[in-house]
Amino acid sequence: MNTKTKTLLWLFDKCPPIFSVPGNHGFTGPYPPTGEQVLLQYHGYHKQLQQASHLQSSALDAARLVTKDLQDWWVNTGITLKSWQAIEQMILTDIEEYKLRKSKRNRTTDTETKKREEFLANTRQTFWIVQPEFEKRLAAKQQLEKQDQTDKEDWLYLEGVRGVTRTATLGPRDQKLAKRQKRKFLDQQAAQERKAKDCLRSATAAHSADAVEESHDPESEDSTEIPMHTVSVSLPKVSKKMESVPMEACFIADKYAISNRAVTELAAAFRKDGGKNLEEYNLSVNTTGRRRQSARLEKAADITKWQLGDITSKMYALHWDGKLIKSLMHVGKDMERVAVILTGTDGQEVLLSIVGMEGRSTAENEAAKIIQVLNDHPLDTSRIGALVFDTTAVNSGVWSGVVVRLETEFGRSLLQLACRHHIHELIGGASCSIVYGPTTGPNEQLFKRLVNNWSELNHNNYTLVEVTAPQRELTGYIHNTITFLQTWIENSTKETLRHDYLELAELTLLFLGGTVPAGRRSITIKAPGAFHHARWISKTLYTFKVALFRCQLGDVYAPEELEDITSLAVFLAIFYTKAWLTCTSAADAPSNDLALMKNLLKAEASISKDPMKWPAKFLSFVVPARQKLQNHLWYLSERLVSLALFSDRTSSDKQTMRKAMLRYHDATDSPQTRKQEMPASHQLGSKALKDFIGHDSWSMFELLGIDSSFVKLPVAQWTTSDNYRHGKKVVANLPVVNDAAERALGLATDLNTNKAPKSEEQLQALYRVVKGVREKLHGLATSTEVVTKKSLASISYSWD
Known about the structure:
52% of the residues lie in helices and 6% in strands. The protein is mainly alpha-helical. Among the domains are: 168 residues, no CATH class; 211 residues, no CATH class; 96 residues, no CATH class. The strands form two sheets. It has a five-stranded mixed beta sheet with strand order 5-4-3-6-7, sandwiched between helices. A two-stranded parallel ribbon has the order 1-2. A hairpin with a 4-residue loop joins strand 4 and strand 5. The relative contact order is 0.07.
């Protein structure tokens, strides 16, 4: 390859100009510079800065040189231009867009080809830096026919140089004006240089005189009094006022949604209390607002850059979820915001955006927004190996859901990790709807009765589950559930335990007649919390509380209502609680789902054979739960069932699974499945995990970046294999719940106040900064109390 080919700029097939001498070199030609010329000029300066050892190479330096060149060319026209900061930002934006298109130059999708062509077409037009207000004034004058000769010439000139086809050039009068402006500029520059030299000369003379005067010793015999003429120079005093609001205070104000006025008043109070003179500080509501905006943008960029660089895993998991939130721009209207999150198998989590949706929230629009967010960040999308989502029709539609559209955009099939919290919420909700009916509003009115009468109950007088003689079969289920819950509570820690999960475990244990492990606090029944449908497991918690106090609620609920709720509580206790508390484990997901399905099928068969052995209406709870689970056997698909190889609970199944894996690995008569498919739902009661293994089971290793060579070793040797240990660590951190996106939407809801910025750019920065501050405080917490002296003293608001 020759030198010329090496230096050609991609997409334009042209070489950037070569500048051997540092400094500005300007644009030449009769027409204003195009976007292509600006990009070439930028790369020429950037290369010059890299080669010059005495200059610091940066994109900003090169952009400023190009900005100066643009201003020098356009100043000849006498037309009002944008500020140099705005021009500089335009250049940097085009450079980032060029880098993005270049990073995807090997893609051949229609979407990327269209974006590349649009970018190239835009660069062939004039790089437009004319001030918009100036154009509006000219247009208004033209409509009112109040243009003078200069206005007409300016209007015709701008129309003649706009776009790709340019015909207008500078007229004689503009050329004379340009010469006068250039002479005026040079005269002003020379005057400034002379003034600076005079100030420097005067200051030096004054400093020398003071030095001589200090060295004179009047007591010395040889000393002779020499008259000194002291030059008094009055240099311009530049007093830079200090920032009144520290950057850290800006972040805390964002975290608690404090207004600019309140922050300004607090800053003034703290400064005065510290004995400071407020005249030395920039102190006003507008200054505080600008300070918060600049701090927000600066730190948001640092946080995202640091978090993306901190993901060391080979694979990303892409999360998203949507929620209707009140619009900040349009009063009285709602806007759907979609949280887009990246997580790594090293546990790192990155908030990319909580982007607003314009128009209807369709699968097409949602997928397009997610792709746009990914394109706005310097991401290697080839590292995305898994998609984590709620199992709504918009997401999981077979032909045109968001999942299918994203896989089409990426050009490959991925791991489809349907949120297991959402799946189990559907399972529990199907059974609860038999008692509580379909959802008709945001709150469950049946639970409101319990809330209204809670203060009248004796909270120490509760009733446990009652098992009649014919229902002896329930005893085994109850005993197994109590044993599991005692172990789960004993092994739980602050880091792995959520308060509502602990409440679920304790209420279930109490209802079944169990006791907490030794050393743990006794169970206290908490007052009812929120009972809206959006809250996880709210129906389950309320069901247990009504069942426990059923003997005191005879005047609140009808007898048949209490009987149905008590039967539902038994069903949830022996089938649902364990499934919910263990659903976050990726390695255990296949075996947990299969075990739950077998238990439901077994109970269904037993009830059909002898209904008297089970509580009333029990079959009406079991059947809808089994049907929902049967529709969501994602983790028993060929691609995901191999996660069970890394489970500590499936040691007896690993040998048979290994044999099945090797059999399909050696077979060559069937191609690898192109997409993740659901397993067959018939005869599930007699199947083992090995029966779900297939050709596609090997895809999981490739998508997660796990070396699968350990599978060929005997199972007894797996724990000594580095590849197996690495795979076990990856799967342990694999997110199979969409809590990351749920937390992001909760953050957006918390910050959706009248104090929130109206600018979308500022709003996205606010989300990232507040999330970062929350994570730092929670990471330093040593107890359930987050804000402690130790955490406040240790926290650092630098992300680097």
